[in-house]
Amino acid sequence: LIGGNFRLDALQAAVVLAKLKHLDSWAAGRRANAARYDRLFAEAGLAVSGKAAGSGKVQLPCIPKSGHVVNQYVIRVPHRDELRAFLNSKGVGNEVYYPVPLHLQECFAYLGGRAGDCPESEKAAKETVALPVYPELSDEQARYVVACIVEFLR
Q1: What is the secondary structure of 60-127 as a DSSP string?
Q2: Which of 73, 63, 123 is nearest to 93 (CA)?
């Protein structure tokens, strides 16, 4: 169903207010972790940009150099589902946030979208996976994530 819930009760507002002072440092931590991933994938010889997955490499997200919160660090890879299973077996958190493109979601069926109408969206929905990027992610943890992906792709 199409919908939303935009209410914020007093308790939620108090929690948000208490956390607000940390927002800038958390965002900076996420940006630093994204830059670290970019560097680690490049050092591993796996980074590609602007190309679709399928090259046996990792398509990195295009993140603006300033102001972006980097809520997710989403890469595009061949054999995404197999990679996810491998990462899970290694204890690496990962997530697919948009497994079904909007034009194929049941709640938008009235718009008449069909498979094949948006081939790039459909392909991205099958190839993208988000890696851990939370502010407290350590260098060692990020290196482990990349090492696991290197192991899988090689």
Answers
A1: PP---SSS---S-EEEE-TTHHHHHHHHHHTT---B-S-SS-GGGSGGGGGGT--TTSSHHHHHHHHH
A2: 73
Query: Do you know the residue count of the chain?
Result: 154
Rama region for 24: left / alpha / beta (φ>0; ψ in -120 to 50; rest): alpha
Query: Of 93, 91, 96, which is closest to residue 81 (Cα–Cα)?
Result: 96
- Cβ–Cβ under 8 Å, residues 26 and 135: yes
Burial of 145 (0-12, 13-18, 19+ CB in 10 A): buried
Contact 30, 133 (CB under 8 A): yes
Q: Does the pLDDT value for residue 100 go beyond 60? A: yes
For the entire predicted model, the pTM comes to 0.87
Handedness of CA 145, 151, 153, 154 (dihedral sign): positive
What pLDDT band is residue 96 in, cutting at 50, 70 and 90? very high
Q: What is the mean pLDDT of residues 127-136?
A: 97
Phi, psi of 13 (to 5 degrees): -65, -40
